[in-house]
Amino acid sequence: MYGKKWMRVATLALGLVSLNVLAAQDFSALNTAELMQLKPSEMGDEDRNAFRAEMQKRSVSMSAAEQEAARNQMREQNRGQGGGRRMQGGGMGRGR
After folding, report:
1. CB-based contacts of 54: which residues, under 8 Å, 6+ apart?
2. In the chain, pLDDT over 70 holds for what percent of residues?
């Protein structure tokens, strides 16, 4: 009797943890500076899409200078990760 109840609780707990992993992260609670520190390249597809959606939503209310600063910060992060898009596709020795 006790074993069945424990198994139900364990199954429920595992199910809730699984749902949390499958759900995209909510980035709306972060301020823009915190959001800019995140690395989309280290996120799963759902989180990356949620991150992009949040950034697009915020960029609408940013001034042109704030948008440029945000773009520059993202570029700097990409450079720190090996050059971003320029390094994809095989690198050196790929002749044409």
Report:
1. 27, 28, 35
2. 66
